[in-house]
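Why should sequence recovery work at all? Because a backbone constrains its sequence more than one might expect. Tight turns favour small or flexible residues, buried strands favour hydrophobic ones, and helices have their own preferences. The token representation captures these environments compactly. In the example below, the structure is given first.
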């Protein structure tokens, strides 16, 4: 039952917002009593923490499965962006923006958790792109990883609209890729830009 509550709460939080959804809403949606929810979660903040942890795990499992397909580095970035767009398509307000505004302590935990994993994935992507001849050999992968992480998370935490956030993320992905790309990388980038329209 606990996992079912987390799953339903996550779905509702992402769709309608962390602030607006109440324990009553979740209980009503699941046709259970509020008392049943409180049996597993002493307050809404604990439920939000566990829900964000579950979403984090799901996102990184999907990223791992995309990476395992061995796309080239640029195609991989676009596939992962497509996954995020699909996953959060029903959200009106950016989930990260909501957390920062309404639940700053939980937001800090989420960002701390994301930092290491995202940086590792960004760096591996850059190093693979260099090996594939899509990114220039002389770039500092640590610096470019830091640049990309800073840009992406700055947009996520400061843009309230999920649609606007996704539009800006596509611009960031193009900016990031052009900054590193070889001629072959530019050709690959242009191909993906034609197929990934907001």
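From this structural description, the recovered sequence reads:
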């Amino acid at each position: 039952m606990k996992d079912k509550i987390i799953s339903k709460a996550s779905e509702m939080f992402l769709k309608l917002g962390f602030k607006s959804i109440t324990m009553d809403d979740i209980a009503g949606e699941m046709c259970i009593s509020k008392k049943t929810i409180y049996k597993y979660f002493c307050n809404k903040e604990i439920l939000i923490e566990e829900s964000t942890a579950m979403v984090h795990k799901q996102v990184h499992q999907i990223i791992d499965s995309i990476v395992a397909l061995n796309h080239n580095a640029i195609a991989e970035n676009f596939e992962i962006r497509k996954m995020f767009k699909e996953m959060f398509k029903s959200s009106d307000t950016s989930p990260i923006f909501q957390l920062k505004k309404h639940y700053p302590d939980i937001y800090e935990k989420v960002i701390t958790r994301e930092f290491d994993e995202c940086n590792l994935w960004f760096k591996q992507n850059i190093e693979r792109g260099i090996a594939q001849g899509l990114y220039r050999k002389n770039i500092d992968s640590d610096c470019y990883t830091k640049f990309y992480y800073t840009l992406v998370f700055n947009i996520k935490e400061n843009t309230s609209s999920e649609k606007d956030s996704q539009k800006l993320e596509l611009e960031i992905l193009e900016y990031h890729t052009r900054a590193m790309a070889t001629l072959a990388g530019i050709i690959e980038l242009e191909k993906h830009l034609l197929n990934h329209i907001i």
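A few observations help interpret the result. Residues 52-195 form a domain with the Tetracycline Repressor; domain 2 fold (CATH 1.10.357.10).
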